[in-house]
Structures are given as C-alpha cells and as structure tokens.
Amino acid sequence: MSTRTAQVWIEQYALESWKTPGGHRRVRRSEVIALRERLAPSEPKRRPVMLVQAGKLNNARICEALSALGEVIAIDDSDPLSSLTIIGRTMPAVVVIEVGDTNLEQLAMLTHLFIDPLLGHTHVLVLGDMTAGQVVAQMRPGEQVSVASPQSGGAELRAIVETILAQGEPGASNRVPALLESMRGYPVPPDENERLKALNRTGLVDTPLEPAFDKIVQVAANVLQTPVCLMSLLTHDRQWFKAQVGLAERQTPRLWAFCNHTIVQNGVFVVEDAAADDRFRGNPLVTGTPEIRFYAGAPIKDYEGYALGSLCVIDNKPRQINDEQRATLKTLAELTSDRINLRTHTRQLAGGPTR
Question: Where is the secretion signal located (predicted)?
C-alpha cells in the first residue's frame, strides 16, 4: 500500500488517525485490518463437486439433471481403482453410483469410499435394487448413504441431491441438523467435514497412551469422584479413547457415543440418569457394560475451534454435579485442548506432516 493511498483513506475518514507531538500520523493496527477486510473482494462460492458412475444409458441423463447444482464429473464404471483415485483427488460432496445385481467390483468400491476419514463428508446416493439396499444396510453405522431407483426421473434425483448438498451449506435451514441426526442416529455438527479434517490434522487417533493425557483423565476422575473418565475423539465412525480411567476398551462405534451430544455445544453436557433418558435408554453402553447411568462431558477443541471430541466422566449410578464441578471439567477439557494444539503447532513448525 502506498503512502498516498493511506493519506486518501485518512482524508476520507476511512481510517481514524492522530498526530504525534513530532508531527507524524499514527493509525491503529486494528483499524487497518478491519478496513482491509471490508475492501477485500469476497471469494466466489465454490461449486460442489458431484461424481456420477452409472451405466452408459443413465450417465448422461443423470449428469444433465444435476448440472445446475454444481460441477458434475462422469467416471467410468469399468475401472473401480481409477474411480477411487478420482474420488480421492476431487473430494466430492456427493457420489452417485449405479449398482447392479452382480457387479461385485462396484460394491467393493462403495464399501471402500469410507476408509479415509477425510471422505467422512461424502454422501453416496446408490441407484440400485434390494441387493444394493442390503449392502448399504451392512455398512458401518454413521455413514451417509441413500438409495434410489435407477429409473428415478431427473427432477426426482435433482431434488434428492439438492437436499444432500444443503446439509453442508453454511446457513442452511434448521432442518439440516435434524435431517443428519435422523440419518445417522446422533447429532452431527454443521461443520462436520472441517471437524474431521481438524481431527486428522492432530495425528492423535490410533496412537499409544501418553502420560500427558493420562494425568488429566485421572485428575478429572478424582475431582468429580467417578469410576470412569475418558478422553474421547470422534472419527467419522468411531469413538476412540486417547486416555482412559476405569474402562478397558479403546473404542466404540460412534453411534453409541454420548459425546456426539457434547461436541455440538460449548458448555458441559450432562445426563443424570441415562436409563430414564429417551435418547440413551436403549444404548448398548447403558443396557450392557459399563452400564452408564451418569455422564458429563466438555468439548475438546482445536486451535480453530473445531470440536475433536470430549473429556467426559461416567458413573454407573444416577447422580448430579454442581456448578463448581462443571467448571472444573470444562477447565480440564480446555487444558486438554491446549496440549493438543501445542503439540500440533510444534509438529507443524518442525515441518512434520499436517495430514
């Protein structure tokens, strides 16, 4: 920025300034940054990418029907490996795939779409018969899969995909979280895709136990006087425990995780008696080991504010906690967040992988 430009902005009162005793102009840094943001051209909204893999008769018809919704890429259904490569490179919002009765390679591709957690945001629309429906039913809990008839009209397919795309749009209507919750069986943050990327960036999932985190869960269990405390990280399909007290398992399906409710809010989420709560009374962790009755969790967040998981305490009998205990749990979760973020920054400064 030239000196003349700064003078013009000051003269036009776009920037507040004052003179020093020596006659020099001074401007607040915060004012300059705010003006820069106001003047910066807004970035064009990125059109969603949709991949279509269907038979020759349907490919062109489906692509034409979806073209108004974003960028549509037709991929060859004869080479599953090539298809997976394209999917990994483009990170599509939606994959529309036609699955026949006997095409096992297509079914294998459908299953492998969800191996990479960075594809946790990708929704698969399967065009197929009951065979496809049976495959979808066997997939892991939490995956985003819909089924439609291969004979669905263009307008019908467009309406289905438009609803799917709305799930990831900032400022989408309030029906979107409810739609996701109904589909997955648990609350889903509106920024789920970015949240999963943030979790992957930490490099924590599936790493060994560490004293730095073990100490925090032990302190939380002692202060809140509960037999179980967990540092839980939520992947696209798992609840994985980086640190734990009082529980032998290292993970559960995400579908069972109480922490799904914790990561969609800022405060402490409390369930005083899970057996009497309609959301949890049928949960396998309530009806079976460890027979959860009481749960309290506070979100663990990365440096950009994405909820990675939670620090939670659990008891097998109903109970309550007071305000001081809530504040303590929240503080310990913030300490956990700080340790994760320091570690991530240290690795990035050292030139390590950011995933």
Answer: none
